[in-house]
């Protein structure tokens, strides 16, 4: 039997780690990692999952749904409240809403301030 692996961290490239960590902190309520700085910031997630944000010079945002600049990673978050209310709150924090919405009424695709697409889905 193969050894079991447990996902411990997810790291996103971005132009401003501090700003992107602040967006996701406001969006999720996760606590900032105490060693965060301008080059690498992070949030301590549930069940030990760490979400990191690393500075990349000449960062180019994904061009979702096109693939000129591939997304390479897509986060999904479950929510229990009305999707319209969630979307409105996230847009006030700086999220964008791509025109292409492939999931109908059960999920929304948004983009974080660095352009990474993510979904919010009904729990």
How would you describe the overall organization of this protein?
The mean pLDDT is 90. The protein has two helices and seven strands. The termini are far apart. Helix content is 18%, strand content 28%. A hairpin with a 7-residue loop joins strand 2 and strand 3. It has a four-stranded mixed β-sheet, covered by helices on one side. It has a three-stranded mixed β-sheet with strand order 5-7-6, with helices on one face. It is an alpha/beta fold.
Primary descriptors:
single chain, 123 residues, alpha/beta, 4-stranded mixed sheet, 3-stranded mixed sheet, 28% strand, globular
Uncertain segments of ≥5 residues (pLDDT<50)?
A: none
Counting DSSP E segments of at least 2 residues, the number of strands comes to 7
Report the radius of gyration as a whole number of Å.
15 Å
**Count of DSSP helices?**
2
Helix content: 10-25%
Strands ordered across the widest β-sheet? 1-4-3-2
Report the mean per-residue pLDDT as an integer.
90
Topology order in helix (H) and strand (E) letters: EHEEEEHEE
Query: How would you characterize the largest beta sheet?
Result: 4 strands, mixed
Assess the beta-strand content as a share of residues: 25-35%
Shape assignment = globular
Structural class comes to alpha/beta
What distance lies between the first and last C-alpha atoms, to the nearest angstrom?
33 Å
